[in-house]
């Protein structure tokens, strides 16, 4: 319970271990299980689709690098791409993030189709995979900013800065953990999404987390 308390505060695992006088590997294992709880809740109670008439979402992709210890090893094979769809209806903005094997239209367009409501405006950069976004029946308007020329289109004011800024907070968490294994990346992203959409403010996040813990492990259920 004490680890859960610090986990809901989003404290680094090293700090949790020091505060509770626990081995850091033990804290890491517990936090990984708590991330699984968030991930399962995201899968069981999806918050997508979002957007709708008059709403704007912004799409972007970013590479998450796995940095090997002492910069040794074949790092390129561990790199992962993450696709993000960020809604500007909320402050701070919220979004959906998924690890993808490819960044082509066949991968990204179905994700956009699945994650947004009809009538949504979609802003992207000029990556080739987005050229057919306006063919999706649920997209009201597709606007593009060419980053090779500017980050904010001077004529239309279109930009994807909310999507781009979301990467910094997610990569900060990755950095605090001294990197993430590729197979753990989606669970980590699910946890961050859960905090955005379901965690609530600092006064309620503990109550909200205990609630989903009870859903997944009813009284009398042995915890493996």
Automatic annotation (TrEMBL):
SMART domains with a match to the protein in the record: DDE_Tnp_IS1595
Q: Which superkingdom heads the taxonomic lineage of this protein's source?
A: Eukaryota
List the transmembrane segments. none
The ISXO2-like transposase domain covers 49-197
Which Pfam families does the protein's record reference? DDE_Tnp_IS1595 (PF12762)
Query: Which InterPro entries does its entry note?
Result: IS1016-like_transposase (IPR053164), Tnp_ISXO2-like (IPR024445)
Designated name of the protein: ISXO2-like transposase domain-containing protein
């Amino acid at each position: 319970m004490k680890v859960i308390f610090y986990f809901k505060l989003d404290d680094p695992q090293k700090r949790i271990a020091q505060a509770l006088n626990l081995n850091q590997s033990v804290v890491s294992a517990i936090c990984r299980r708590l991330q699984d709880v968030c991930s399962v809740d995201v899968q069981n109670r999806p918050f997508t689709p979002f957007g709708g008439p008059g709403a704007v979402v912004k799409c972007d992709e970013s590479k998450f690098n796995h940095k090997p210890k002492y910069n040794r090893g074949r790092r390129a094979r561990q790199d992962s791409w993450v696709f993000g769809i960020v809604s500007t209806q909320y402050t701070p903005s919220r979004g959906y993030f998924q690890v993808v094997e490819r960044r082509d239209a066949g991968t990204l367009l179905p994700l956009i189709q699945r994650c947004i409501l009809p009538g949504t405006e979609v802003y992207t950069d000029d990556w080739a995979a987005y050229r057919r976004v306006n063919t999706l029946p649920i997209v009201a308007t597709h606007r593009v900013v060419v980053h090779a020329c500017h980050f904010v289109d001077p004529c239309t004011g279109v930009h994807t800065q909310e999507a781009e800024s979301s990467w910094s907070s997610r990569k900060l968490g990755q950095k605090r953990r001294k990197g993430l294994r590729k197979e753990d990346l989606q669970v980590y992203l699910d946890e961050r999404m859960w905090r955005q959409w379901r965690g609530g403010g600092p006064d309620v996040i503990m109550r909200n987390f205990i609630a989903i813990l009870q859903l997944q492990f009813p009284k009398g259920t042995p915890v493996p």
